[in-house]
Amino acid sequence: RSTVIIVSSFNLIEENLSYASGSDPKRVITNLIHRDSVLSPYYNPKDTIADRVERSLEISAARLAYFQAKSSLDVTRDLRFDLIPSFPMIFVNFSLGDPPVPQLTVMDTGSNLLWVQCVPCKNCSQTSPLIFDPIKSSTYSKVPCNTSYCKVVPGGRCGSSDQCVYNQTYYDGPSSKGELAREQLMFRTSDDGTVAVSNVVFGCGHENGKYWDEKFTGVLGLGSQLISVPSRLGSGFSYCIGNLFDQQYAYNKLILGEGAIIEGDSTPVKIIDGLYHITLEGISFGEKMLDIDLGVFSHRTQRIGNSIIDSGTTVTWLVLGAYKALFDEVKGLLEGVLEIVDRKPLRLCYQGSASRDLVGFPAVTFHFIDGAELSLDTGSLFYQAGDVFCMAIAPSEFEGLSIIGLMAQQYYNVAYDVAGARVYFQRIECALLDD
Questions:
Q1: Range of 38's domain?
Q2: How far apart are CA 196 and CA 5, in angstroms?
Q3: Which residues pair with 159 in a beta bridge?
Q4: Longest dimension (CA), the chain
Q5: In the chain, how many H helices and how many E strands?
Q6: Which of 7-16, 22-31, 111-120, 235-244 has the lowest mean pLDDT?
Q7: CA distance 428 to 335
Q8: Are residues 209 and 101 in the same domain?
Q9: What's the confidence (pLDDT) of residue 435?
Q10: Residue 84 in contact with residue 173, Cβ under 8 Å?
């Protein structure tokens, strides 16, 4: 039997609407859907492992190019966009409005705004039942111009009838334009109940560019700004992702709110241009700490923030000096044991099966300041592509900035305590996080 928890409306001063009221749920826990899982509308039973790996690598390369552009000193002043979700990785499923309309949005820690396609909708499929019609919802309300939300939303300005309008632009791709509004979100819980959160600020997109497909309905930004969904529930959130290449895995989780599970070792986080930066200070291979000049980790003059932790990148991109040290160590251990496959320069691939041929292989551990660690076993360190496996860590020529991808985060509950400015890593089987 389903249980419905409706969060009542509340009246607070505009500036305080980002904080949860006493009637809010302490936490919202919902399943996440990986792009290639059997639960995804993108699932293609004809896809080979090599197909899925190649797609993941394309996504990772696109994210790297975006982060390079956004962090460039030369263009930061004029760069007011996020990464276009043309190749989504992780989806959040919820319903919007009353009566509720199902939505399938891309989860993104690299942006702040939740937006969905709305009627009337330019470049949208007008026959899709997932396009939200605000006129039909009893819980829809407009956000006026003279609010803090309108000041921080991308492209925020005053439209007709004192309505705040937005323009969420993306790197090298179409944007989403529309009205800023409030609505009720309803999430399905792991026990098949539902939990609802009212007065969530979102973008009702009437002109959403021409995306390459129409399977997803919008983007759920998990940034730290006032307009984000995490801010509505107290700013804390966590996610847990299991085996990315197991299409049957059904326990990926997103937890929102002050009741998010924030446990394990932690490290300071610095939010720069909406991205979560943490500080990598060393890498070990088994019991051996690699000999890496700490200078290669330096990102300009920042003490905190040489690595972006990202939910949209599959592989990890390491600065060249750190990557080369790890490359040499792995290659040296497997020299003469396995046949190396000639791929791109500095990409380490071998003939065989990682699960069969690397039994007892040392774990690689990323060490962050204040003692937090991410430990990568063979399932997180290597990806299998047919009869070849490759290291899921690639060299970044972007000086002083690494990107920690999802494969390195597998089977960790990664918790973001935005108010406390820390990120936590807890090694766990995601199924244990059921509410």
A1: 27-257
A2: 6
A3: none
A4: 73
A5: 6, 31
A6: 7-16
A7: 33
A8: yes
A9: 53
A10: yes
Q: Which of 235, 257, 279 is the last residue of a domain?
A: 257
Q: How far apart are CA 382 and CA 348, in angstroms?
A: 10
Instruction: Tell me the C-alpha distance between 332 and 173, whole Å.
Output: 42
Catalytic positions are 108, 310
Pick from 131-145, 208-222, 399-413: least confident: 208-222
Give me the helices (H) in 90-228, please. 148-152
- 178 shares its domain with 144: yes
CB 350 within 8 A of CB 341: yes
Question: What CATH number is given to the structural domain containing 60?
Answer: 2.40.70.10
Instruction: Give me the residue label for tokens 């199902």.
Output: 102
Residue position matching structure tokens 């899709």: 128
Q: What is the distance between the alpha carbons of residues 322 and 399, in angstroms, rounded to a whole number?
A: 11
d(CA 370, CA 372) in angstroms, rounded, equals: 6
Same domain flag for 95 and 179: yes
User: Bridge-partner residues for 412, per DSSP?
Assistant: 427
The DSSP secondary-structure symbol of 352 reads S
pTM (predicted TM-score): 0.85
Using a pLDDT cut of 70, give the percent of the chain over it.
82
Contact between residue 418 and residue 224 where contact means Cβ atoms under 8 Å apart:
yes
Place of tokens 């989403």: 176
- Same domain? 37 vs 146: yes
Q: If DSSP codes are grouped into helix, strand and coil, which group holds residue 428?
A: coil
Clarify whether residues 222 and 313 are in a common domain.
no
Asked if residue 53 lies in contact with residue 279, where contact means CB atoms within 8 angstroms, the answer is no
Q: Which of 108, 317, 113 is nearest to 203 (CA)?
A: 113
What H or E segment, with its residue span, contains residue 62? helix 49-70
How far are the Cα atoms of 182, 202, 322, 348, 405 from residue 143, in angstroms, in the given order? 7, 9, 47, 52, 35
